[in-house]
Amino acid sequence: MPPQVQPKPFRAAVDTNVLMDLALPRETAHDAVELMRTRIAQGCEFVVTPRVFEELDFIAEHGDEIRERELAGAALDRMVADWGFMPLDFSGAGHDIAEIAAEHIIGAGLLPAREYNDAVIVAEAAQANSGLLLTSDNHMLVIAAPRLHLILDSLGLGRPLIVSPARIVRDFSPRQ
Q1: Strands (E), the chain
Q2: Any residues with CB less than 8 A from the CB of 139 and at least 6 apart, and which?
Q3: pLDDT at residue 174 above 80?
Q4: Greater confidence, 12 or 5?
Q5: Which CATH superfamily, name and number, covers 10-169?
Q6: Taking the CB of residue 109, how many other CB atoms lie within 10 A of it?
Q7: Which of the residues 25, 139, 157, 167 has the least number of beta carbons within 10 Å of its own beta carbon?
Q8: Does residue 53 register a pLDDT over 60?
Q9: Cβ neighbours for 78, distance < 8 A, ≥ 6 positions apart
Q10: DSSP state of 128
């Protein structure tokens, strides 16, 4: 009998705001992560893309408010040890690919130019072959998925579904 191949875990990328929400004692983001971990049959691997890591680091050092700096610092401290999230790093060419994809996303009008970091985060999630990008950012949540997927397909990248923690909780919580 041939050895049984274990399916790869489902990969979900998380946005900066989700990580900062996880640093709070109890938040919808906690429920969403727990639901994904328990309800996805092959398991769920959460990843933190390079731009998200950079944003957290910047906010921890230079955030406008003390509370914002504290949450970003706590997220940096806890993402691996407490939450089991995996920070990703891309090679120099990997960063270039994400930036090219971000420019296409903005050029297509899917995000305004001022949301360049968000476009890079979407592109990095796609580059990491994430099936889902978990965010509370309304700019990302309203991106037209068919148009985004055409862009990502043309660049040979993955197609993450962009979803909020609240939607995960609403759609996947056990019904009472």
Answers
A1: 10-14, 44-48, 86-87, 132-134, 161-163
A2: 111, 112, 115, 118
A3: no
A4: 12
A5: 5'-nuclease (3.40.50.1010)
A6: 10
A7: 25
A8: yes
A9: 22, 23
A10: T
